[in-house]
């Protein structure tokens, strides 16, 4: 057979495998509450949890629960629903308060790695050395094939006390809540509470950058990372759990394609047209006795240019950090700016604002030729930088 269809493989994830009624002949919650530590936690926490469920529009007690953890992002999410036809809803996110190892799966005893893959809760320990703990079925079928054949390791838990050598630790208050939720789900008949452990939260840019660098150094990890990402994306799209099997090589195989992404309307942005130039239609003089003077003289004009270079930085395009713009303009016989245009550099939006600023310049002292005011053409470069 292509797939190893043993119980551990099928019941890793698929919600259809959850039984509708409890399989135990005794009351699971009563048994758990017979332990003093957990009973005290139950008294403190259950009313608060019920109110939190009510505030989020969730039915109490929880019947189906799903956990997913992100190693690099140090998060543990709790998703719940009350019947198999519903979609999972996020109830709460806990901070994973300590981390051992690096990205990548656990392959042997003593490597201090947190596993990566698809697991379920297989143990409730109310007498844990780490306050309370929920055991995971590591090594699963994939781990037994790909890990060390003699010493793959074990004893992987979600627990309290905020210390770890390869588990998923949260604080004591949080593990009390999680333990109570899991106990309710177990007593309602969810015999296999799925726990997915991912290297990163795949919708976070910083985390994806870190993963890309890790895969560059360890390219053999790419296959597993991609399979994990597929399951993450499937759940993100549907809030339902896919079926995951394990092939003879120990590789996870996800059954079913990702749902098609909705077609997004593409907004067409019309490219900005250049501002029309108002040409100067008067007579220009090439040779003058004195040039036009900006109000306040050359220092004032330089201050105007410097300020303009800073103010125009916001109109640089994406990826554009600086530009030189060559302006051409006329100061007419009355000292008024006219015929303003950009002859080099910039972009349409930037140039429009520069032209507007030059057109609004105050009146200059006009140029003089043979004791007569005349119009002259000037050029000025402007340096714009973010």
Describe the structure.
Mean pLDDT is 88; it is low at 1-25. This protein has two domains: 7-255, L,D-transpeptidase catalytic domain-like, CATH 2.40.440; 297-385, TolA/TonB C-terminal domain, CATH 3.30.2420. It has an eight-stranded mixed beta sheet, with helices on both faces. The chain has helices at residues 7-10, 28-32, 36-55, 141-146, 172-187, 205-217, 222-238, 297-311, 348-359; strands spanning 64-70, 75-81, 89-95, 117-125, 133-136, 157-159, 168-169, 193-198, 243-246, 252-255, 322-331, 337-344, 367-369, 372-374, 376-385. The two termini are 63 Å apart. The protein contains nine helices and 15 strands. The chain has 386 residues and is α+β, with helices and mostly antiparallel strands.
Q: How does the major sheet shape up?
A: 8 strands, mixed
Give the number of DSSP strands. 15
Number of helices: 9
- End-to-end separation in angstroms reads 63 Å
Radius of gyration: 35 Å
CATH architecture of the largest domain: Beta Barrel
Helix amount: 25-40%
CATH topology of the largest domain: L,D-transpeptidase catalytic domain-like
Q: Order of SSEs, N→C? A: HHHEEEEEHEEHEHHEEHEEHEEE
Summarize the structure.
The chain has 386 residues and is an alpha+beta fold.
Secondary-structure blueprint:
Layout: H1 7-10, H2 28-32, H3 36-55, E1 64-70, E2 75-81, E3 89-95, E4 117-125, E5 133-136, H4 141-146, E6 157-159, E7 168-169, H5 172-187, E8 193-198, H6 205-217, H7 222-238, E9 243-246, E10 252-255, H8 297-311, E11 322-331, E12 337-344, H9 348-359, E13 367-369, E14 372-374, E15 376-385
Parallel strand pairs: 1-8, 6-7
Antiparallel strand pairs: 1-2, 2-3, 4-5, 4-8, 5-6, 9-10, 11-12, 11-15, 13-14
């Amino acid at each position: 057979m292509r797939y190893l269809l043993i119980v551990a493989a099928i019941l890793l994830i698929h919600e259809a495998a959850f039984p509708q009624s409890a399989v135990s002949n005794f009351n699971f919650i009563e048994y758990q509450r017979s332990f003093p530590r957990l009973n005290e936690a139950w008294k403190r926490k259950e009313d608060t949890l019920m109110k939190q469920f009510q505030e989020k529009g969730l039915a109490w007690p929880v019947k189906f629960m799903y956990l997913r953890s992100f190693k690099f992002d140090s998060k543990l999410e709790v998703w719940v629903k009350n019947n198999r036809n519903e979609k999972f809803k996020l109830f709460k996110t806990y901070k994973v308060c300590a981390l051992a190892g690096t990205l990548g799966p656990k392959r042997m005893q003593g490597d201090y790695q947190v596993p990566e893959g698809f697991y379920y809760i297989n143990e409730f320990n109310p007498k844990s050395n780490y306050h309370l703990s929920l055991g995971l079925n590591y090594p699963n079928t994939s781990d037994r094939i790909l890990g060390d054949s003699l010493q793959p390791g074990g004893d992987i838990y979600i627990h309290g006390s905020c210390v770890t050598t390869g588990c998923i630790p949260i604080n004591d208050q949080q593990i009390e809540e999680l333990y109570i939720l899991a106990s309710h789900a177990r007593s309602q008949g969810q015999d296999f509470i799925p726990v997915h452990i991912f290297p990163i939260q795949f919708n976070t840019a910083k985390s994806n950058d870190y993963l890309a660098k890790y895969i560059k150094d360890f390219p053999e990890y790419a296959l597993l990372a991609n399979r994990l990402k597929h399951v993450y994306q499937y759940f993100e799209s549907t809030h339902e759990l896919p079926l995951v099997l394990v092939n003879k090589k120990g590789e996870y195989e996800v059954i079913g394609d990702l749902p098609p992404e909705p077609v997004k309307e593409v907004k067409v942005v019309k490219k900005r047209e250049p501002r029309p130039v108002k040409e100067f239609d008067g007579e220009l003089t090439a040779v003058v006795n004195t040039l036009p003077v900006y109000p306040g003289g050359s220092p004032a004009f330089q201050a105007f240019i410097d300020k303009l270079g800073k103010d125009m930085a916001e109109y640089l395009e994406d990826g554009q950090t600086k530009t030189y713009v060559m302006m051409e303009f006329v100061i007419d016989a009355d000292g008024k700016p006219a015929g303003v245009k950009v002859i080099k550099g910039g972009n349409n939006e930037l140039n429009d604002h520069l032209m507007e600023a030059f057109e609004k310049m105050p009146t200059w002292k006009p140029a003089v030729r043979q004791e007569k005011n005349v119009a002259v053409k000037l050029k000025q470069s402007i340096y714009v930088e973010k």
